[in-house]
Amino acid sequence: MSEILESSLYIFVLASFLGYAVITRVPGLLHTPLMSLTNALSAISLVGSLLLAGSGQSTMATILGSVAVFCAMTNVVSGFLITDRMLKMFKRREAPKKADAPTEGASAR
Amino acid sequence: MRDVIISLAYLFAAGCFVLALKWLSHPTTARRGVRTGEVGMAVAIVATLLKTEIVEFQWIAIALVLGTALGIPLGLLVPMTAVPQRTALSHAFGALAAGLVGTAELYLRTPDIDTTTMVALGLEVVLGFLTFTGSLMAAGKLQGIVRDRPWIYSGQNLVNLGILASALVLVGFLVVDPSWTALFPVIIGISLVYGVMLVIRIGGADMPTVISLLNSFAGLSASMMGFVLDNKLLIIAGALDGSSGLILSIIMCKAMNRSFANVLFGGFGAEDTTAAAAETRPVRSVDPEETSFLLDAARSVVIVPGYGMAAAQAQHKVRELSDTLMKRGVDVRFAIHPVAGRMPGHMNVLLAEANVPYDQLYDLDSINSEFPQTDIVLVIGANDVVNPAARTDTTSPIYGMPILDVDQAASIIVVKRSMRSGFAGVDNELFYLDKTQMLFGDAKTVVGEVIEELSKLPAREVAGV
């Protein structure tokens, strides 16, 4: 096994465990934003797309790379925007119960 | 020097991504997480553009502008009910990007390619293209362009497995002899077909699992791209996305008491067998006026929303009902089953959009012990997730699925269009209980009527009656 592959595999496995540890702590409440955020983050494939599109190796590389840049960039922009739009909507109850029904409903947590 | 700075920038971006996910663990810090992710992404993009390998910028600039132009409306204008479709579509985009880069690398790098890179490339291309068509199919089903009911024929599993196996075998050939370039389009074609075949047999209520799984695939293909390009940032971000998708699909499977294999290969929800026979059993029905009396007299109400509520666009009316009842001193909570809606957490987003505060939303584990102390459960557009057969009837296809134990409440009101069975095609015993009453009609309309009736009632007596 080459050294590059070995270190890459270490990173892959450790990052997967790290992902597991971090993501299991995300509550069900936020699972939709979680998916749209990870979607935006995985659009990091933009890096590979940019390298290919700008490499000037062949017309094919430029065409496929540019389409890939377009796709990944769409995900970057829309992923972050929609995640933030969703998270903006999650609000706490503004104030505790009104005083006109002191006992009933006071058990709300 | 430039390379060192770029490497450090990538490392910084990877750190930002982990923190972004960490801060997503609570609604109060979540937006900070998004901003952190944005910073990481911006740094990564700028660092990449500084690389000396990039010599042509005009096409990149055009693609970036067009991508931004499409991304802004996709991010800002898509309604919350359509978020599952948008998510599926973005999986398709992400996977297509990985697949296309992989294809180009195949042609550029072969035949002088080492074995491990070839394996990673093969996986990147197969995962990328099958996720591309699979996600497009999922988006089409969610949007209603493609038939929502699963499409099943005999021998389907064999055909599907055969297709997938043949793609992997061909990748194996390529690993042995990378000069066999004629195989590239064949492998791509097979992967594209497999994506369609995989999702065509999935029905609406299994979408949360399948979207999560496709999410995982899209992440893995990005990670494989990292192996090919020897870019650690890609490996890390892809692995984070991959494990996130995997965790979500496991959660979804558990919430339905089903295995991956059963979701992907089982014929769940394919036919309505039991529904027809049971149609004639008597149920008690109730009208909006009576419902308003019952709700007004209750101390505690738990609302159980299902996909039916979202389909009827009733979430704003439901929030209005909740507010009206709370003003009258009734304790109102929402019970959210993990598979309610069309993707993980979808129902929470819909209710948050309708301004329901998130501390009024309870998940399965925290609400189930509360049902025996609940006066009225109002089920709106949910069915299978409140079916007691999951606890009692060992022959039921949904037996063992964790459900909301609404049948333990003092009384239940079910808002439903008709007596049609749920997605699983299983009749629901809950509807026939003596303490259950059916409020028939379109959720938005009838909830609106209940609110109107409530407003006609005199102010509620002071507590202590």
Record keyword descriptors for this entry:
heterodimer; A: about 110 residues; mainly alpha; flat; B: about 475 residues; alpha/beta; Rossmann fold; 3 domains; six-stranded parallel β-sheet; about 5% strand; elongated
Description of the molecule:
The complex is a heterodimer of chains A (109) and B (465). Chain A is mainly alpha-helical and 109 residues long. Chain A has one domain. Helices cover 66% and strands 0% of the residues of chain A. Chain A is built from four helices and no strands. Chain A is flat, with a radius of gyration of 22 Å. Chain B is elongated. Chain B folds into three domains: 1-77; 82-270, no CATH class; 281-456, 3-Layer(aba) Sandwich (Rossmann fold), CATH 3.40.50.1220. The longest helix of chain B is centred in the N-terminal third of the chain and has 29 residues, at 115-143. Mean pLDDT of chain B is 88; it is low at 268-278. Chain B is of the alpha/beta class and 465 residues long. At the A-B interface, helix 1, helix 2, helix 3 and helix 4 of A face helix 1, helix 2, helix 3, helix 4 and helix 8 of B.
